[in-house]
Design goal:
Elements (H helix, E strand, L loop, with lengths): L1 H32 L2 H7 L2 H24 L3 H27 L2 H9 L4 H17 L6 H7 L15 H7 L33 E8 L2 E6 L10 E8 L2 E9 L2
Antiparallel strand pairs: 1-2, 2-3, 3-4
């Protein structure tokens, strides 16, 4: 009986501590080595996109609202109505381009605050979406094809214009992103290092899930992002992400 009890304890320890710990270690190692394939197996990106949908929807709605204010009373009235029609498609396009293993690696390797990195990526995806058919005037101009779906007045469908006017991110290839010609090439940054000091929050969500809050800065008092780790698909995977923006 005693051996059976010890075996049960070891089994539970392995399932709830060793296994998820190994998943977390695998994700950390994949980020350091820029291994997108391992990240794709250890992170349920479809579920993560769903978890980020409310935050991204609110951000894009704010972008539209700021631009709508500049169109006058008539534009604001029509734009406010049509915004709801185009918003879901815009958010889907942004999430598909934004939440990828490659972008996760990029954000982790960048210096500075997480909020700045995420907003820069969001700005880039806004400009990219603005050049896609069906998402605004930018799509028609860039592709020569007719734009499907309702159009916002005064160029409100042009997401790239919105991103530029409200200062979200910098256009790719602009002078702001190019290093000065006189500067010598900088050596590649060292891979980020994450450990227990980066963990700022932990909570059990149920028998098959818990959440961990992590900060890029080890001295921070609050997490930059809270990730949900859940047992799904016969493995412990990250299934939700809630950044502090």
């Amino acid at each position: 009986m005693k051996r059976l009890l010890v075996f049960a304890v070891l089994l539970l320890f392995g399932f709830y501590v060793v296994w998820p710990g190994w998943s977390a270690y695998s994700i950390d190692s994949a980020i350091k080595t820029k291994d997108a394939e391992t990240l794709a197996h250890k992170i349920d990106f479809a579920s993560v996109r769903d978890s980020l949908r409310p935050a991204v929807t609110q951000k894009v709605a704010d972008f539209y609202d700021q631009q709508i204010k500049q169109t006058g009373p008539t534009g604001a009235l029509v734009g406010g109505q049509l915004k709801q029609a185009v918003l879901p498609g815009v958010v889907d396009a942004l999430l598909a381009g934004l939440v990828t293993p490659e972008n996760l690696i990029r954000v982790a390797h960048e210096g500075g605050q997480l909020k700045e990195s995420v907003e820069r990526l969001l700005g880039e995806e806004l400009r990219r979406a603005g050049r896609m058919p069906g998402l605004g005037t930018g799509g028609a101009a860039a592709t020569g094809q007719p734009v499907g779906g309702p159009q916002l007045p005064g160029g409100l469908g042009d997401l790239s214009g919105i991103a530029g006017k409200i200062g979200i991110g910098q256009p790719v290839g602009t002078a702001a992103q190019q290093p000065p010609a006189s500067k010598a090439a900088q050596p590649p940054a060292a891979p980020p290092s994450y450990g227990l000091d980066n963990v700022k929050h932990f909570a059990i969500l149920g028998p098959m899930a818990f959440e961990i809050g992590v900060a890029k800065d080890k001295t921070a008092t609050e997490p930059d992002v809270t990730a949900e780790l859940r047992f799904t698909g016969m493995d412990w995977k990250v299934t939700a992400v809630r950044p502090r923006l």
